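INTERNAL AUDIT FORM
Audit reference: QA-55
Scope: verify that the stored structure record matches its stored sequence.
Auditor: D.O.
Record contents follow.
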Amino acid sequence: MLAHDNQMQFQQKFAATQNSVLLDVKDVTLQYASRTSLVTATWRVSFNVQYGDRFILLGPSGCGKSSLLKAIGGFIRPVEGSITLQGKPITKPGPDRMMVFQEFDQLFPWRTVIENVMFPMTVRPWSKRDCRERAREALEKVGLSSFADAYPHMLSGGMKQRTAIARAMAMEPDVLLMDEPFAALDALTRRRLQDELLRLWDDLRFTMLFVTHGIDEATRIGSRILLLSPHPGQVRAEFSCRSDWDAAQRLGLEQRITTMLVEGTEKPQIGEAS
Protein backbone atom coordinates (compact mmCIF):
# COMPACT_ATOMS: atom_id res chain seq x y z
CA MET A 1 0.00 0.00 0.00
CA LEU A 2 2.82 2.40 0.87
CA ALA A 3 4.52 1.71 -2.46
CA HIS A 4 1.35 2.58 -4.39
CA ASP A 5 0.83 5.76 -2.34
CA ASN A 6 4.45 6.87 -2.90
CA GLN A 7 4.20 6.26 -6.64
CA MET A 8 0.95 8.22 -6.83
CA GLN A 9 2.54 11.12 -4.92
CA PHE A 10 5.50 11.19 -7.33
CA GLN A 11 3.22 11.18 -10.38
CA GLN A 12 0.87 13.83 -8.98
CA LYS A 13 3.80 16.07 -8.09
CA PHE A 14 5.25 15.64 -11.58
CA ALA A 15 1.93 16.48 -13.25
CA ALA A 16 1.41 19.56 -11.08
CA THR A 17 4.91 20.96 -11.55
CA GLN A 18 5.77 19.92 -15.12
CA ASN A 19 7.60 22.70 -17.03
CA SER A 20 8.33 24.51 -13.73
CA VAL A 21 11.89 25.35 -12.67
CA LEU A 22 13.10 23.28 -9.73
CA LEU A 23 16.81 24.10 -9.71
CA ASP A 24 18.41 27.34 -10.90
CA VAL A 25 22.17 27.73 -11.37
CA LYS A 26 23.15 31.29 -12.25
CA ASP A 27 26.62 32.58 -13.21
CA VAL A 28 28.38 30.03 -11.00
CA THR A 29 32.16 30.12 -10.77
CA LEU A 30 33.90 27.42 -8.73
CA GLN A 31 37.54 27.57 -7.65
CA TYR A 32 39.99 25.40 -5.73
CA ALA A 33 43.14 26.49 -3.96
CA SER A 34 46.23 24.48 -4.88
CA ARG A 35 49.70 24.87 -3.36
CA THR A 36 50.75 27.45 -5.91
CA SER A 37 47.60 28.97 -7.40
CA LEU A 38 43.85 29.27 -7.50
CA VAL A 39 42.34 26.80 -9.98
CA THR A 40 39.11 27.78 -11.72
CA ALA A 41 36.93 24.69 -12.21
CA THR A 42 33.92 26.43 -13.81
CA TRP A 43 33.42 29.93 -15.13
CA ARG A 44 30.04 31.68 -14.88
CA VAL A 45 27.92 28.64 -15.66
CA SER A 46 24.15 29.11 -15.87
CA PHE A 47 21.32 26.63 -16.44
CA ASN A 48 18.02 25.53 -14.90
CA VAL A 49 16.50 22.13 -14.26
CA GLN A 50 12.76 21.58 -14.47
CA TYR A 51 10.69 19.07 -12.52
CA GLY A 52 11.00 15.63 -14.08
CA ASP A 53 14.07 16.47 -16.16
CA ARG A 54 16.73 13.89 -16.89
CA PHE A 55 19.35 16.60 -17.04
CA ILE A 56 22.86 15.67 -18.21
CA LEU A 57 26.09 17.53 -17.46
CA LEU A 58 28.38 16.43 -20.29
CA GLY A 59 31.96 17.37 -20.98
CA PRO A 60 35.57 16.22 -21.06
CA SER A 61 37.53 15.33 -17.93
CA GLY A 62 38.43 18.41 -15.89
CA CYS A 63 35.58 20.61 -17.15
CA GLY A 64 34.07 20.96 -13.66
CA LYS A 65 30.91 18.89 -14.13
CA SER A 66 31.45 16.87 -10.93
CA SER A 67 32.34 20.09 -9.11
CA LEU A 68 29.02 21.57 -10.20
CA LEU A 69 27.21 18.51 -8.89
CA LYS A 70 28.98 18.83 -5.52
CA ALA A 71 28.08 22.52 -5.37
CA ILE A 72 24.42 21.65 -6.00
CA GLY A 73 24.74 19.02 -3.28
CA GLY A 74 25.91 21.76 -0.91
CA PHE A 75 29.47 20.47 -0.48
CA ILE A 76 31.18 23.37 -2.33
CA ARG A 77 30.33 27.06 -2.19
CA PRO A 78 30.59 29.12 -5.39
CA VAL A 79 32.95 32.09 -5.35
CA GLU A 80 30.55 33.80 -7.74
CA GLY A 81 26.91 33.28 -8.68
CA SER A 82 24.04 31.48 -6.97
CA ILE A 83 22.33 28.09 -6.79
CA THR A 84 18.72 27.83 -5.67
CA LEU A 85 16.39 24.86 -5.19
CA GLN A 86 12.67 25.71 -5.25
CA GLY A 87 13.72 29.35 -4.96
CA LYS A 88 15.81 28.83 -1.80
CA PRO A 89 19.62 29.25 -1.78
CA ILE A 90 21.65 26.08 -1.34
CA THR A 91 24.14 26.59 1.48
CA LYS A 92 24.70 23.06 2.81
CA PRO A 93 23.88 19.40 2.10
CA GLY A 94 20.32 18.25 2.74
CA PRO A 95 17.98 15.27 2.26
CA ASP A 96 16.26 17.09 -0.61
CA ARG A 97 19.38 16.28 -2.70
CA MET A 98 20.70 12.73 -2.63
CA MET A 99 23.94 11.77 -4.37
CA VAL A 100 25.04 8.54 -6.04
CA PHE A 101 28.78 8.31 -6.74
CA GLN A 102 30.71 6.07 -9.12
CA GLU A 103 32.78 4.41 -6.38
CA PHE A 104 31.67 0.99 -5.15
CA ASP A 105 32.77 1.76 -1.57
CA GLN A 106 29.94 4.26 -0.88
CA LEU A 107 28.14 1.61 1.20
CA PHE A 108 28.93 0.87 4.85
CA PRO A 109 30.62 -2.58 4.83
CA TRP A 110 29.42 -3.46 8.34
CA ARG A 111 25.74 -2.84 7.49
CA THR A 112 23.46 -5.09 5.48
CA VAL A 113 21.95 -3.91 2.21
CA ILE A 114 18.66 -2.91 3.82
CA GLU A 115 20.47 -1.22 6.73
CA ASN A 116 22.48 0.81 4.21
CA VAL A 117 19.27 1.91 2.49
CA MET A 118 17.67 2.81 5.83
CA PHE A 119 20.66 4.71 7.24
CA PRO A 120 19.98 8.23 5.84
CA MET A 121 16.30 8.00 6.81
CA THR A 122 17.20 8.97 10.37
CA VAL A 123 16.82 12.62 9.29
CA ARG A 124 13.24 12.01 8.16
CA PRO A 125 10.28 12.03 10.60
CA TRP A 126 9.47 8.42 9.79
CA SER A 127 9.02 5.53 12.20
CA LYS A 128 11.50 2.64 12.12
CA ARG A 129 8.80 0.38 10.73
CA ASP A 130 8.00 2.91 8.00
CA CYS A 131 11.71 3.27 7.15
CA ARG A 132 12.12 -0.49 6.79
CA GLU A 133 9.06 -0.73 4.56
CA ARG A 134 10.29 2.12 2.37
CA ALA A 135 13.71 0.48 2.15
CA ARG A 136 12.19 -2.85 1.09
CA GLU A 137 10.08 -1.11 -1.56
CA ALA A 138 13.16 0.67 -2.93
CA LEU A 139 15.12 -2.58 -3.07
CA GLU A 140 12.24 -4.26 -4.86
CA LYS A 141 12.25 -1.53 -7.51
CA VAL A 142 15.94 -2.18 -8.28
CA GLY A 143 15.58 -5.96 -8.13
CA LEU A 144 17.47 -6.58 -4.89
CA SER A 145 14.73 -7.81 -2.56
CA SER A 146 16.41 -11.20 -2.11
CA PHE A 147 19.69 -9.50 -1.10
CA ALA A 148 18.23 -7.29 1.66
CA ASP A 149 20.17 -9.10 4.40
CA ALA A 150 23.42 -9.47 2.44
CA TYR A 151 26.55 -7.40 3.14
CA PRO A 152 28.26 -5.21 0.52
CA HIS A 153 31.24 -7.58 0.10
CA MET A 154 28.76 -10.21 -1.13
CA LEU A 155 27.53 -7.98 -3.98
CA SER A 156 28.82 -7.37 -7.49
CA GLY A 157 29.71 -3.84 -8.58
CA GLY A 158 26.38 -3.43 -10.37
CA MET A 159 24.45 -4.61 -7.33
CA LYS A 160 26.30 -2.11 -5.13
CA GLN A 161 25.32 0.70 -7.47
CA ARG A 162 21.70 -0.46 -7.50
CA THR A 163 21.78 -0.42 -3.67
CA ALA A 164 23.10 3.14 -3.74
CA ILE A 165 20.33 4.17 -6.14
CA ALA A 166 17.73 2.49 -3.92
CA ARG A 167 19.10 4.32 -0.87
CA ALA A 168 18.85 7.67 -2.66
CA MET A 169 15.37 7.04 -4.09
CA ALA A 170 13.99 5.82 -0.75
CA MET A 171 14.66 9.30 0.67
CA GLU A 172 12.26 10.83 -1.87
CA PRO A 173 14.60 13.72 -2.70
CA ASP A 174 13.62 16.72 -4.83
CA VAL A 175 16.52 15.94 -7.14
CA LEU A 176 18.71 12.86 -7.56
CA LEU A 177 22.38 13.75 -8.17
CA MET A 178 24.36 11.07 -10.02
CA ASP A 179 28.11 11.45 -10.53
CA GLU A 180 29.10 9.00 -13.29
CA PRO A 181 27.42 6.15 -11.37
CA PHE A 182 28.03 3.53 -14.08
CA ALA A 183 31.53 4.56 -15.19
CA ALA A 184 33.35 1.77 -13.33
CA LEU A 185 31.09 -1.01 -14.63
CA ASP A 186 31.61 -3.30 -17.61
CA ALA A 187 29.73 -2.36 -20.79
CA LEU A 188 27.00 -5.00 -20.45
CA THR A 189 26.23 -4.14 -16.81
CA ARG A 190 26.36 -0.43 -17.59
CA ARG A 191 23.77 -0.84 -20.35
CA ARG A 192 21.50 -2.90 -18.11
CA LEU A 193 21.62 -0.32 -15.30
CA GLN A 194 20.94 2.48 -17.77
CA ASP A 195 17.80 0.60 -18.81
CA GLU A 196 16.80 0.08 -15.17
CA LEU A 197 17.30 3.77 -14.38
CA LEU A 198 15.08 4.77 -17.31
CA ARG A 199 12.46 2.26 -16.19
CA LEU A 200 12.51 3.74 -12.68
CA TRP A 201 12.14 7.23 -14.11
CA ASP A 202 9.22 6.09 -16.26
CA ASP A 203 7.49 4.77 -13.13
CA LEU A 204 8.20 7.70 -10.80
CA ARG A 205 9.12 10.72 -13.00
CA PHE A 206 11.69 12.00 -10.51
CA THR A 207 14.14 14.80 -11.30
CA MET A 208 17.67 13.68 -12.06
CA LEU A 209 20.97 15.49 -12.62
CA PHE A 210 23.45 13.07 -14.19
CA VAL A 211 27.16 13.65 -14.82
CA THR A 212 28.94 11.78 -17.60
CA HIS A 213 31.74 12.17 -20.13
CA GLY A 214 30.15 9.53 -22.38
CA ILE A 215 28.28 11.06 -25.31
CA ASP A 216 26.32 7.87 -26.03
CA GLU A 217 25.31 7.61 -22.35
CA ALA A 218 24.19 11.24 -22.37
CA THR A 219 21.90 10.80 -25.38
CA ARG A 220 20.57 7.49 -24.06
CA ILE A 221 19.65 8.73 -20.56
CA GLY A 222 19.08 12.46 -20.91
CA SER A 223 16.07 14.53 -21.87
CA ARG A 224 18.24 17.67 -21.76
CA ILE A 225 22.01 17.82 -22.22
CA LEU A 226 24.26 20.69 -21.14
CA LEU A 227 27.61 20.60 -22.93
CA LEU A 228 30.55 22.12 -21.06
CA SER A 229 33.81 23.30 -22.62
CA PRO A 230 37.23 22.00 -21.50
CA HIS A 231 38.77 23.42 -18.31
CA PRO A 232 37.56 25.72 -16.95
CA GLY A 233 34.01 24.57 -17.70
CA GLN A 234 31.78 27.04 -19.50
CA VAL A 235 28.41 26.42 -21.13
CA ARG A 236 29.01 25.51 -24.75
CA ALA A 237 25.49 24.46 -25.76
CA GLU A 238 22.28 22.84 -24.58
CA PHE A 239 20.40 20.10 -26.44
CA SER A 240 17.06 18.38 -26.09
CA CYS A 241 16.95 14.62 -26.56
CA ARG A 242 13.63 12.81 -27.01
CA SER A 243 13.08 9.26 -25.82
CA ASP A 244 11.17 8.41 -29.02
CA TRP A 245 14.08 9.28 -31.32
CA ASP A 246 15.30 6.56 -33.63
CA ALA A 247 18.95 5.48 -33.89
CA ALA A 248 19.70 7.87 -36.77
CA GLN A 249 18.42 10.91 -34.87
CA ARG A 250 20.40 9.97 -31.78
CA LEU A 251 23.52 9.35 -33.83
CA GLY A 252 23.13 12.73 -35.50
CA LEU A 253 23.11 14.48 -32.13
CA GLU A 254 26.11 12.47 -30.94
CA GLN A 255 28.09 13.49 -34.04
CA ARG A 256 27.16 17.13 -33.52
CA ILE A 257 28.30 17.02 -29.89
CA THR A 258 31.54 15.27 -30.85
CA THR A 259 32.30 17.97 -33.43
CA MET A 260 31.70 20.73 -30.88
CA LEU A 261 33.96 19.05 -28.32
CA VAL A 262 36.78 18.66 -30.85
CA GLU A 263 36.42 22.30 -31.90
CA GLY A 264 36.38 23.35 -28.24
CA THR A 265 39.78 21.78 -27.53
CA GLU A 266 41.31 23.84 -30.32
CA LYS A 267 40.16 27.19 -28.89
CA PRO A 268 42.08 29.15 -26.22
CA GLN A 269 40.63 28.74 -22.73
CA ILE A 270 40.49 31.00 -19.69
CA GLY A 271 43.65 30.45 -17.69
CA GLU A 272 44.05 29.66 -14.03
CA ALA A 273 43.63 32.53 -11.60
CA SER A 274 46.80 33.43 -9.79
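Auditor finding: record pair retrieved intact. The chain has two domains: 2-96+176-265, 110-172.
Action required: none
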